[in-house]
Amino acid sequence: MSRGRRDPDLVRSYVRTGGRVRAAHELDLVTLVRSVADARPDHRPDERRVLALTSRRGALSIAELSAYLDLPASVVKIIVSDLLDSGHLQCPTPAEVKPELALIKEVLHGLRAIAG
Amino acid sequence: MVSVPSRGEVDYVAETVTRSVKILVAGNFGVGKTTFVCGVSEIRPLRTEETITEASIGVDDLAGLGSKVQTTVALDFGRLTLNPQLALYLFGTPGQERFAPLWEELARGALGALVLVDTRRIEKADDVLSALEQRGVPYAVAVNEFEGFRRYPLEEVREALDLAPETPVVAVDARRRDHGLRALITLAEYLFRRQEATAS
Lengths: 116, 200
Hints:
Shape of chain A: elongated
Order of helices and strands of chain A: HHEHEHHEH
Distance between the termini of chain A: 58 Å
Shape of chain B: globular
Structural class of chain A: mainly alpha
Radius of gyration of chain A: 17 Å
Number of strands of chain B: 7
Radius of gyration of chain B: 18 Å
Order of helices and strands of chain B: EHEEEHEHEHEH
Number of helices of chain B: 5
Helix content of chain A: 40-55%
Oligomer: heterodimer
């Protein structure tokens, strides 16, 4: 365990995530999440921070949670994964899943509209 | 310890947004990735940090504790709401090969990449281009024309980088939002043509 002393970040991540090193859900840096339930008293401090930051209205991505909370994205993913399992967080449900070509077209139209 | 920014300081995605996509803004150190992302983003650009493990070349290893060290890599990113349902995230992606573990995650699901190059150090872009090609991420090239620097004909850039004939090459001033948007449109048009050719 001597690596731990050399590497406080690694230890902190490990403790912060309750000992897990991988998220159960497939989460990307751009996965969006919203809160649906308030924190419980037994939630760990970082879980409470995530729930305090997320909103029931506008979503935030994993990357944004990581930036605002100053936590590595890999740690945020594990916390978010647990909170999705416990029903405190939710990923917004898209009205439709588009094939790649339709999605690229949508991106192109969006960019053109912004550029004016 | 349990500090959280107040909600007023947080740029939430619009309530109607349910989907997100990502595009990488890749390039070597100092080429203007963060400037580009700042120029185009509708939110104050943010920074996420990730820890990667890498070989500790040149680091003392007297205790024989292994030859790997943890390094923190910072990624600057921004966001653009493309329509009421869809948000685009732009990630400034560092080029060095030692960031390969990070690249796996960034490349997964990315629609494509805009590669920023600096004509003063054009050969440095090779690593970035091979990293994208290895992971099958389609890209367009944007030459960042820093103020006061000599402009090269884009065809010379294409030749120097040995680009495929269909790969778009554009000139940008990374500080300008209109240039940034135009470069992203060029990339999206290319992605569309490419996908259409595959689909048919």
